[in-house]
Design brief:
Blueprint (H helix, E strand, L loop, with lengths): L2 E8 L3 H15 L2 E5 L4 H7 L5 H9 L2 E6 L4 H11 L4 E7 L12 E7 L9 E5 L2 E4 L5 H14 L4 E5 L7 H15 L4 E5 H10 L6 E4 L1 H15 L6 E5 L4 E5 L16 H13 L3 H17 L12 H11 L1
Parallel strand pairs: 1-2, 1-3, 3-12, 5-10, 8-9, 8-10
Antiparallel strand pairs: 4-5, 4-11, 6-7, 11-12
Helix pairs in contact: 1-9, 1-11, 5-6, 7-8, 9-10, 10-11
The structure holds 1,4-dihydronicotinamide adenine dinucleotide and magnesium ion.
Length: 321
């Protein structure tokens, strides 16, 4: 049966890199694409950044390819992650031959809790100049994340937390993740997330899979992007029990949007994750291999020191798949 892929290019460079990812997907498999819109431009035209048909298409699809949206990001991404009940955001960050990196031996995967923490949406203005944000941590969400982590990293993983300060919330997070790991015979080491940030910069090769609360995963994975050569290289998967949303970690890059020079690698690597999620492991491997080849031998976009356009890099990747 032909699998259905919802395609949400969004705004800015999302509109430039997503078509490359769609072409790559089309080249390696037999998919039906459902093109829908979300983001700033749609909000201006239609008064909502997330039209009902977009949400419905993402819910119904076997998987979604997402680009990036601008100012409306929180009003689009969070509901779409919820639409597929995505409980984990998988963010690999690794170096590639041929790409200059601050730390050449970085090979990390962040497994980020994707539903709660300080991104649960409970913010309030109590009085003029006084605001609050309520952090939500549940045993259920921590358990689902931990079960996924045990499957993903049976050789063990690091648990990022700050339970010396957030004793109740991160206490529950850490205890739950460690209990699930112990029950599955998986080794863990716990790390205070502030010190972990320093250790990741100094000795990234000491770490492998890092399981994080929501905000920590967001911040630490961008930090890792800085270690490996930039946001143009980081893919991600919002994994749910039945389907998922696959997107580059980067945003709309307003500083380069419209110039046709965005690096499509992150978006294309996200399709490799999508293919593997759907069980097309060989196709995923082909796509990743083609991206690695182009990163090593060029052409390269300006963020990686080259002068090639998005289209030229996209064509080179397509030739390699
Ligand atoms: P950004 O990721 O858009 O850009 C940060 C820097 O990285 C910029 O200098 C940009 O040129 C560069 N960069 C990012 N991706 C690149 C690529 N593929 N090729 C070459 N260079 C690349 O983050 P920023 O500037 O903080 O946010 C811009 C907008 O994007 C904001 O409106 C924000 O809300 C939105 N955003 C949306 C996200 C999403 O849709 N998932 C995620 C992050 C930000
Ligand atoms: Mg982010």
């Amino acid at each position: 049966m032909t699998e259905e892929i919802a395609v949400v290019p969004g705004d800015g460079i999302g509109r430039e890199v997503t078509p490359v990812a769609v072409d790559v997907l089309d080249a390696v498999g037999d998919f039906e694409f459902v093109h829908v819109e979300a983001g700033d431009a749609v909000a201006e035209q239609r008064g909502t950044p997330l039209p009902d048909e977009t949400r419905a298409a993402v819910e119904a699809a076997d998987a979604t390819l997402f680009g990036a949206v601008g100012e409306t990001a929180a009003d689009v991404i969070l509901p779409l992650r919820a639409a597929v009940d995505s409980f984990v955001n998988v963010r690999p960050a690794r170096t590639y031959p041929g790409v200059d990196a601050l730390q050449s031996e970085t090979d990390l995967v962040f497994l980020r809790e994707n539903t709660e923490g300080v991104y649960a949406g409970h913010e309030a203005e109590l009085a003029d100049g006084v605001t609050t944000c309520t952090r939500v941590v549940t045993e259920n969400a921590s358990r689902r994340l931990a079960e996924y982590a045990c499957d993903y990293a049976p050789d063990g993983f690091t648990v990022a937390h700050k339970d010396n300060v957030m004793r109740v919330t991160d206490g529950l997070f850490r205890d739950t993740v460690e209990d699930v790991a112990a029950a599955n015979g998986v080794e863990t080491d716990a790390a205070l997330m502030d010190a972990l940030a320093m250790h990741l910069v100094e000795r990234p090769e000491k770490f492998d899979v890092v399981v994080c609360p929501n905000l920590a995963g967001d911040v630490l994975s961008d930090l890792a992007a800085g270690l490996v050569g930039g946001l143009g290289l980081l893919p991600s998967a919002n994994v749910g029990p039945e389907n998922g949303v696959f997107e580059p970690v980067h945003g709309t890059a307003p500083d380069i949007a419209g110039e046709g020079v965005a690096n499509p690698a992150a978006a294309v690597l996200s399709t490799a994750m999508l293919l593997e999620f759907l069980g097309h492991d060989a196709a995923g491997e082909r796509v990743r291999g083609a991206v690695e080849d182009v990163l090593e031998h060029g052409p390269r976009t300006t963020d990686l020191g080259g002068d090639a356009t998005t289209a030229a890099v996209g064509d080179a990747i397509l030739e390699g798949v």
